[in-house]
Amino acid sequence: MEKTVNQKAWFLVLPVLLLVAFSAVIPLMTVVNYSVQDSFGNNQFFWWGIGWFEELLHSDRMWSALWRQLAFSAIILAIEVPLGVFVALNMPKKGFWASFCLVLMSLPLLIPWNVVGTIWQIFGRVDIGLLGYTLAALGIDYNYTQDAVDAWITVIVMDVWHWTSLVALLGYAGLQSIPDAYYQAAKIDQASRWKVFRYIELPKMMGVLMIAILLRFMDSFMIYTEPFVVTGGGPGNATTFLSIDLVKMALGQFDLGPAAAFSLMYFLVILLISWVFYTVMTNLEKREG
What is d(CA 80, CA 131) in angstroms, rounded to the nearest whole number? Predict the structure, then answer.
């Protein structure tokens, strides 16, 4: 007897597909259209083919921004993932303090990105900021507006403060799914703290950590508001990441063709690296299992 397949459920999905087409596909096609054209001004365009893509691939400006972006994302992941796991492991499991810690860890995530940038911009100022004034009083020459290293440290610490909570909360959710029987068995076997983490806690956290790493990579690779508010991409081009460089090209210089090509290449890089991350981590999870 053949099983009857009801295709009417597609009508329930159709509004979502139309909404996605309107909000994502149509703007993307507009960007693709601009990326293969040039303009004389007065809204007059002519075919330019892949000229903008070739120009960008030979542009030192784009490659410099890309390396800065990759370095920033690598540093962020290297700090936030271990730190988030450490915080999750040391959070209370039950009771009032568990709820208190969850609320406390959620607070940085509730602050809008532009407000985070404004907070750290003021916080790091030597004249009125607590951090800048304290470091100056200690004799430390700190000025994120003039020194590239200070600017990088400020942006990194700001991002760690803002987003480590996300990794910690996801890791904590993974830990909560571990039955108490696992810990009791480990205690009977006199397993060390490291072995409990290695063979019980880490495997249970791998799924949520994979999500955390992907989210943090994509967010850090697309970061714009916080460093733009704090440093404006400076000093010089020290913190001019890909997103800031793209906005300068599109709005500051109004080069729509190169900016459209730049945004497509930007999108493909994020898609490619995210796919690599996902593939590697999925294979590792299967091997551990």
Answer: 21
Length of the chain equals 289
Rg of the chain (C-alpha set): 24
From the number of C-beta atoms within 10 Å of its C-beta (0-12, 13-18, 19+), residue 148 rates as middle
- With b for 16 or more beta-carbon neighbours within 10 A and e for fewer, the 121-136 pattern comes to bebbbbeebebbbebe
Tokens standing for 190?
Answer: 């006199």
Six token digits for residue 213: 């790493």
The single residue listed with the structure tokens 């440290």 is: 153
Tell me the pLDDT of the chain averaged across its residues.
Answer: 87
Q: Rounded CA gap, 269 and 92, in Å?
A: 39
Helix or strand or coil: residue 127? coil
192-201: long-range pairs with CB below 8 Å, 24+: 197/89, 201/89, 201/175
Beta bridge partners of 47: 37
pLDDT more than 90, % of the chain = 34
DSSP codes joined into one string, 138-206: TT----TTT-HHHHHHHHHHHHHHHHHHHHHHHHHHHHHTS-HHHHHHHHHTT--HHHHIIIIIHHHHH
Q: Does 221 have pLDDT greater than 70? A: yes
* CA 237/CA 28 separation, integer angstroms: 28
| Domain 60-288 architecture | Orthogonal Bundle (1.10)
Cα–Cα dist 148/39, whole Å: 37
The pLDDT value recorded for residue 1 is 53
Comparing CA positions, the residue from 151, 145, 179, 5 lying closest to residue 72 is 151
Contact between 148 and 235 (Cβ < 8 Å): yes
Q: Which two tokens stand for residue 63?
A: 């490659």
pTM over 0.90: no
Pair 231, 154: CB distance under 8 Å: yes
pLDDT, residue 41, reads: 66
